[in-house]
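When time allows, look over one protein, given below as sequence and tokens. The question is which stretches look regular and which look disordered:
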Amino acid sequence: MTHAMSEPLDERLDFCRRLARSAGQRAHAGFGTAPATLKGRHDVLTAMDAEVERFIRAAIAERYPGEAVLGEEEGASGAIDAGGRVWIVDPIDGTANYARGIAHYCVSIACVEDGVPLVGALHDPCHDRLYGAARGGGAWLGTQRLAVSPVDTLGAATVECGWSPRRPAEEYLALVARVMHAGCAVRRAGSGALGLADVAAGRIEAYCELHINSWDCAAGILLVREAGGHTNDFFAGRGLTGGNALIATNHALRDALWRTIGITP
């Protein structure tokens, strides 16, 4: 444990990236063919979700015994609320897309300490894109350093508005209306993690969601910040275990988009 706590972040990131790729390859074996069930309204589960999460948990337990893990499918193991380091795992973000054979899903793995993301990685198996970031070390797609979009005009901006069944439909429609009335293009693609990766890569100017869980966004938040973008303080309060509202933007439109979207910085 002493070695793990003193380990350089680049070594922890290397582990995270390799694990995300291996998990993504495992998940992709069932892409478009895995039978799906509903956990809740529009909340899809496949057997592969649980299998991939168990694979990730086993690898973390072997490399970092004693460090806590919070996963979408199996919940928390270890002292999640006692500070320290916590691994946050989404074995398949975008399961509805995955189950339907829509090529927009990923594996998301991050490690946070006292609410601050240390390392994170996303693997998009359909396009073999491996994203990674370590605090203070930049955001990367493979060997390419990422930077947020330079767009500084709302009329040229694209915003992804993620949807959550945990908030009334009227609130989501009002959010979309505000963004559209400001002149932005709006999209929703079904993976919060990849939406954040798109902000970090400069493909879109913002991602927002009225409620999102930490396993969907922990790695993506770090990607955006390390690519020069901004997010709200997602981990405030019960963000880690209970989720929170999220806004992530490029630098040039930060203030304008935060006013438009209306999520508290």
Q: What stands out?
A: The mean pLDDT is 92. The first strand starts at residue 36 and ends at 40. The chain has two domains: 2-145, 154-261.
